[in-house]
Amino acid sequence: MVWPTRLSEGQMPASCDEYNPLFSPCVPYLVNPDFGIPSPRCCAGAAQVFGKANNPAAIQKLCTCLVVTMPSLSFKPQKLTQLSAACKIKLLFPIDKCIKA
Asked: Which family, according to UniProt (predicted)?
């Protein structure tokens, strides 16, 4: 099976563009249940994006973008919840509650 590696126009609302450093390089990891380790580029993007989620408003915006984009990008929720641990990123919020909200 071929997994997408780039985002297509319209797969992500413009208000979520700032999260491209997470979405674009992490697509192979987030859509493929058998993709074991995220790439260094994915981890760098995830660290950048998760680092900005440092207050309630920023966390809410990230959560909203994740919930809106996950279905169109075919992200696996379990892979998203594993991403911070796989990249050794300490989150300031529980991402599992974020995407199940």
From this structure: Belongs to the plant LTP family.
